[in-house]
Specification:
The structure is a single chain. Helix content is 30%, strand content 26%. It is built from 10 helices and 15 strands. Helix 5 crosses helix 10. The longest helix has 12 residues. 43% of the residues are buried.
Length: 286
C-alpha cells in the first residue's frame, strides 16, 4: 500500500492519505475480481488511480440520487454493489442516462468502484452481513459452496441462538433490515419453530433446493417468483421470507466500509433508499 505522507499516532503508523489505487487494492484483496461471474462487470469503472482519496461513499446502486449525494458531500470515490455498466457499451455520451452519470462523476472528480458477485461469494461477504443482520451470530457455512474453495460460495446457513417461531423470526428480521415499501413477505405457519436459517443476499430463488437440502427451517432471500415459491412450499415444510433486493444487500455496506477503518479515509453509508418500489396500494374489489 502506498501511504504518503504518514504520521506516528500512539506508536502506530497511520496514513494521512491514500490514492485510489491503494483503496482499490484493499477492496480487491477482500473481493477478488477473479471470483466474479463471467457475465459480471466489477472493479474500477472510472477514476484516476493516482488521485488522492479522502472520502468514500458506499451504496448498493450507482443511481442518480447516490451520485448527487456523493458530489454534494465531496466524495472522492463511490463503492457500490451493483454495476453501472453491466452490459457492454461502445460509448458513454451524455445523451444517455448512464452516460450522463459517468460524465457527472468524471467532471466532479469522483471515482466509481463495484464489487458484485465477487462480494457475494467472499468470506465474509454479502450474505454473511445479511445473516448477522437477521439474528445469526454463530458460525456460518455457504449455502452453495464454491468448487474452488468450500469456505466461499453463495448464501449462508446458520443456527439461531435459541429457537423462535416463524413470526418472531420474521419480526426480528424486519427490524434488522432497512425498511422498504413492501416489507417482508412470509410463506409458512407463523407458529412453526425456526432454528436453522438459510439466507442469500439478492435474488436467491436458484438456491431454493440448496436451502431445503441444508435442512433450513426458513430461507430468507429476495425476488422470489410465484411459481418457484409455490412449488417449493408444496413440496416441503421450509418457510420462505421474501425481502426487497436492496434491503438484503444493504447490510454489506457497513462491512465494506470497515475495510477502510485502519486508514484516515472518511466513510459514509448512503442515505438513499434505492429500492425500486415506492408505494403500495390496497384499494380494490378483492
Amino acid at each position: 500500500m502506498v501511504c504518503a505522507p504518514a504520521v506516528i499516532s500512539n506508536g502506530n503508523l497511520r496514513c494521512v492519505s491514500l490514492i485510489l489505487a491503494d483503496v482499490v487494492g484493499i477492496f480487491e484483496d477482500r473481493y477478488d475480481p477473479a471470483w466474479a461471474q463471467e457475465w459480471d462487470a466489477v472493479g474500477l469503472v472510472c477514476g484516476d488511480p493516482e488521485a488522492q482519496v479522502r472520502r468514500v461513499l458506499f451504496a448498493v446502486d450507482p443511481v442518480t440520487e447516490v451520485v448527487g449525494e456523493a458530489l454534494d458531500w465531496g466524495a472522492d470515490l463511490i463503492v457500490t454493489h451493483h454495476p453501472l455498466l453491466l452490459r457492454p457499451v461502445h460509448g458513454v455520451p451524455a445523451t444517455t442516462h448512464k452516460g450522463r452519470l459517468v460524465h457527472r462523476l468524471i467532471t466532479g472528480g469522483t471515482a466509481l468502484f463495484t464489487a458484485h458477485t465477487n462480494a457475494d461469494v467472499a468470506d465474509p461477504g454479502v450474505s454473511d452481513a445479511l445473516a448477522r443482520a437477521v439474528g445469526l451470530d454463530g458460525p456460518l457455512r455457504p449455502l452453495s459452496p464454491s468448487p474452488d474453495d468450500p469456505r466461499r460460495g453463495l448464501g449462508r446457513v446458520g443456527e439461531l441462538p435459541a429457537p423462535l417461531s416463524l413470526r418472531e423470526f420474521a419480526d426480528g428480521a424486519a427490524k434488522g433490515l432497512p425498511a422498504t415499501t413492501a416489507g417482508l413477505r412470509v410463506a409458512g405457519d407463523p407458529d412453526a419453530p425456526v432454528r436453522t436459517v438459510a439466507v442469500c443476499g439478492g435474488a436467491g430463488d436458484s438456491l431454493l433446493g440448496a436451502a431445503r437440502a441444508a435442512g433450513a427451517d426458513v430461507y430468507l432471500t429476495a425476488d422470489l417468483r410465484h411459481h418457484p415459491a409455490s412449488e417449493f412450499r408444496e413440496a416441503g415444510a421450509t418457510a420462505l421470507i421474501d425481502a426487497a433486493h436492496w434491503a438484503t444487500e444493504w447490510p454489506w455496506l457497513r462491512d465494506a466500509a470497515k475495510l477502510l477503518g485502519e486508514t484516515n479515509v472518511e466513510t459514509r453509508i448512503s442515505s438513499a433508499v434505492t429500492d425500486a418500489w415506492t408505494f403500495r396500494s390496497f384499494e380494490g374489489s378483492t
